[in-house]
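User: Round two. Same drill as before: sequence, then structure, for each protein.

Assistant: Same drill it is. First protein:
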Amino acid sequence: MDKISSMRVFAKVVELGSFSSAANDLRMSASVVTRHVAELEKHLGTRLLNRSTRSLSLTERGQLYLERSLRILADIDETESLVAASDKKLSGVLKICVSANFGLRVLPELLERFRAKYPEVLVDVILTDEPVDLIARGRDLAVTIAGNVTQDTVVRALIPTKIILCATPAYLEKFSTPKTPADLAKHRAIVLTAAQQVRYYWELADHNGALQRVDLNPAIFCNTAAFAYQCVLANLGITMFTSYLAQNDIDSGRLVRVLPDYELPDRELVIAYPDRRFLTFKARAFMDFLFEEMRSEEGRVPRHAA
């Protein structure tokens, strides 16, 4: 039994949704395709596919086997590519998830330089501030805020970020500037719902690190920091930003930092990936590139990045 060939056949059957379509695509007979899948199931001692006269569906173990198989096959393909060519000849699709603000405001410039170095790598990007399950989404890695990935991932800190509160001068002129954390209860809060549990409070720390919990009066719920940013610029309320995002607008006067003597707990911008054993060469190259770019003085990410 050629397990690698059978993996490829199995993956193609799932991709196309039928044995006959996979046979046509792979230029095999339907019986050969069926035998590959049957031999896999016999070898593993479990059913991978639920079959009916009209459709196919993955079993729970079939889904797990598919996810791991795709990573193994991608690693094999890239290993062969590396042997056949230089490191700069990496090719294929790199699938990443990134936080929305990072993706909208920083990533394009980084991708320009990355693709100049690896022009044959196609980058497939999902922007999300929702908790990221890399395996379920079939992503190679994520660039997001710490704590925003599932526990079954490897996480490496990229850069530190501070979380601060901001509003526009026009909003504060109309509704007054909070003097103490308790004053926030009287203001319109723009609340992110991307966390696993929506919170109707913020916890602010003073210079001594003492936390003070403040109940909120939510005006808008949204699931991305990018939309919250636009809402604040539209004078709709107060929200939390990373200092990277807000600093340029604070310097220009478009935004005002609210309660500058207080901060929300710091959170790091991180790179996360499912498992070192399944980190593809493309993903490793991109991760190394990000560390080099974002930690060097010359390639320092703009202050509004995270």
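Second protein:
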Amino acid sequence: MSNCYELPNLPYGYGDLIPFLSVEQLTFHHQKHHQAYVEGANAILEKLENAREQGAEIDMKSTLKELSFYLGGHLLHSLFWENIGPKGGGEPKTELASRIKKDFGSFERFKKEFSQTAISVEGSGWAALVHEPTSSQLLIMQIEKHNLNLYPNGRILLVLDVWEHAYYLDYKNERAKYVETFWNFVDWAEIEKKFHLTFFNKRFNMAGGK
């Protein structure tokens, strides 16, 4: 159980996201920080397993809070690597474009709100575009750290990491410039796949699995 989680390979080379991210920045982020979240989550699972086998007491409040932090970091980073790429940029097409226009008024309005969400994160965290199935609409979510202010049922389509470790080597304290450059590398084809899968699952469930 101690190795349940593994660091995913990037779907591109370390030099493929220049000028958004330098080789040094991307390598450091992926191999050091993301790896640390993977190792942290695995260590907590091993700690829980050992405590159960030995009948030992464990502080569940602090342990599970720590697990949510490491696991959230691992899963959000995995999504982040997927939704950026060297052939990104532009705007979404087909149904996703229509849905963004419906829920935000226009793509430019969505882009502005998402950027403001990312720039205004206090300390470390994320901006995310989610589909909230109860209201059946796209919402923007501001995540503090990896595990606070989450919409519990929201299905994440797009994330942007605004922890300082994600950009500081390249941008220093210019988070806004990092966010602006991000849009040139958003892989809308990948995000549209998640969007279509989300709505397919919703229709499938409403049809009783038929």
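The domain at 94-205 is CATH 3.55.40.20 (minor pseudopilin epsh fold).

User: Perfect.
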